[in-house]
Amino acid sequence: MLRQIEGSRAVAETVALCRPEVVCAYPISPQTHIIEAIGAMVKSGALTPCEFINVESEFAAMSVSIGASATGARSYTATASQGLLFMIEAVYNAAGLGLPIVMTLANRAIGAPINIWNDHSDAMAVRDSGWIQLFAETNQEAADLHVQAFRLAEELSLPVMVCMDGFILTHAVERVELPDQAEVDAFLPSYEPRQVLDPDDPVSIGAMVGPEAFEEVRYLAHLRQLDALERIPTLAAAFDEAFGRQSGGLLHPYRTEGAETIVVALGSVLGTIKDAVDARRDAGERVGVVGITAFRPFPREAVRGALSGTHRVVVVEKAFSIGYGGVLSTDVAMATHDSDCTLRTVVGGLGGRPITRDSLEEVLAAAARDELDPLTFLDLEIEIVQRERGRMTSTRRSGPSAENILRDLGTVASRIG
Amino acid sequence: MFQVRIHGRGGQGVVAAAEILSVAAFVEGRHAQAFPSFGSERMGAPVVSFCRIDDRPIRTHEPVMEPDALIVQDVTLIHQVDLFAGLPSDAYVLVNTSRSFDELGLGEFARRFHRDHLLTCPATELALEHLGRPLPNAALLGGFAALTGRISLDAIDTAVRQRFTGAVGEDNVAAVRAAYRYVTLEEDEMVDASTD
């Protein structure tokens, strides 16, 4: 049914249609509305049978999810930012144990300085954990990806993280076509665990593995992620067949035919980028965009194919590796290493700073003139940084930088509203 | 694309107003996107919400920087927040107050805009009358429909009833209609005044 609905609510209702048997989560902005809505559905009996377990922390939330999944229950959780970091040991365990938990990550920056707004630092912090990471471009895709995520996770016995931009998607009220129960039931078979803790047929899960086999177990995990590269497009095609719309898959190219410059990005910023691309195309520039949905496993071959023939690749990303540069762009560089295109990294949208179409068009114009630096920080106010650098040079006890910078801006605390 | 910015304080239904407006546009078969200013909302603090309406799918997720219309739910924000930032001179402005722009000290400012695009509406009084509570958000949407002609009164009614069921819904619809009538009469007077 087509609804005008908040992104969080659309995800909560879709997750409920997937019939999770255990939901365990700890609230954190901007994930809260999802969990509140699912909690209310469990309490009212709208989602049954399902147990909603309140816990005291994110570490407990993921640990309970692991326990529930190991007993054969379809398990779901959601978190963001510091919450993800707090559960990170258990996040690795869920993947290492091969438990098909589905988790929504309402992407948010990581402190310090504390910041509740959107960027992709949290997802990037766990990119090597062994979870499949899918990024939603729209709230429609966020909802749809959850249906695919449960099937993918359970087919492969791997946990799947659906990443959706915090606030920008979670709190936006937009059109979303929500499936009905019969459609989801037809697409998502009941969970048949590959391993299960069953008193009638006891096994132990979580053996200590020494140097004699650790590399083999890890390599197997790698191969199973590569299996996901095959399954993700197949499931997206099956989803299209069943629901009549395209969601998911490895990546989404847009106006890349004959493009001299192609932008690569993850998540909701792709919508704004598409508007910028249309404007530049209207002005006669040959530009396109490739949105990457599957970040882990990284679809190296598909990315290479989508970017073949272009002269310039501009990776726009909402996270970076401090002391190095782009994260996504490093992966894109590996995918295009045998091509002679130039690769530029644009870091933007950190801690919720808006990425505007105007700024994106300036980036595209600079790229077309071959004047874009290898690493650009979008809309960076360098004077503010230089002022604090000056203070640090002239005074030993220059004090806390974040507070100094806010004071320079005339702000007592970060402005809200 | 038509873009609306709504200012108010936490607890006044600022976020709900943008949502209801987006649902009204959806009811009319149009595309709409409503979202709050992202932050830690709390009672009494300045809050901003936005609504985009278009006949095509809305892909952008950038903030609304140059709104086509502004709704001010709480007139005390005038000296606290840059309410009119980014407003083009043909923008619509609807302010919840029983006073005039001149009485608010905004007479000079108001003359920079199209005269028939700026109105005040005593939405809190109308809400008190019809709901018994000082919640001006729904009423202002009725005023907005009358002022801009960008959304039908019926669609606002439907969206308000979706948000508030039962008697609360009907009371809100009554406030919506009262504000719609108020603004329509004000506009008629303005037309009469200019033809005199």
Strand order of the largest sheet of chain B: 2-3-1-4-5-6
- Beta-strand segment tally of chain B: 6
* Sheet with the most strands: spatial strand order of chain A: 3-2-4-5-7-6-12
Order of helices and strands of chain B: EHEEEEHEHHHH
Q: Unreliable segments of chain B (pLDDT under 50, ≥5 consecutive)?
A: none
| Sequence stretches where pLDDT stays below 50 over 5 or more residues of chain A | none
Q: Roughly what fraction of the amino acids of chain A lie in strands?
A: 15-25%
Task: Enumerate how many helices of chain A there are, as a single number.
Answer: 15
CATH secondary-structure class of chain B: Alpha Beta
- End-to-end C-alpha gap of chain A: 33 Å
- Mean pLDDT reading of chain A: 96
In helices, the fraction of residues of chain A equals 40-55%
The CATH architecture designation of the largest domain in chain A is 3-Layer(aba) Sandwich
- The CATH topology annotation of chain B reads as Pyruvate-ferredoxin Oxidoreductase, domain 3
Entry summary:
The complex is a heterodimer of chains A (417) and B (196). Chain A has 417 residues and is an alpha/beta fold. Chain A is 42% helix and 17% strand.
Structure keywords:
heterodimer, A: alpha/beta, Rossmann fold, six-stranded mixed beta sheet, 15 helices, 15 strands, 42% helix, 17% strand, B: 196 residues, alpha/beta, globular
